[in-house]
What we know:
Layout: E1 16-25, H1 31-54, E2 57-62, E3 67-73, H2 77-85, E4 89-90, E5 93-103, H3 106-114
Antiparallel strand pairs: 1-3, 1-5, 2-3, 4-5
Helix pairs in contact: 1-2
Amino acid sequence: MREKPRTLPPTLRDKHRYIAFQIIGERNFKKDEIKKAIWEASLRVLGELGTARAKPWFIKFDEKTQTGIVRCNREYVEEIRFALAMLTEISGSKVITRTLGVSGTIKRLRMKFLKEFGW
């Protein structure tokens, strides 16, 4: 009989926070463009070590409303918000990245910050 793989207990797991953001730009952007731009901005601002510690992870992006969700380590929320704020250009088009809010769960993030965008 095979044993079930053991999962880490909650006390040893990383604590995450979810950041809701909106992209305001000259044109609408595709999900892949945003994903790549966030990763590059994080590397540029925080460096490789800072990005590895912050663990930014692209969760979702709605191309119609230009809003999305990024997950990161709880201790590095401000660093990721700073990296998002420093994102000024995507694929040659000028953009402004607006942070809508931060929450510990995606459900609460949607209720508080993304409801007005139809999430």
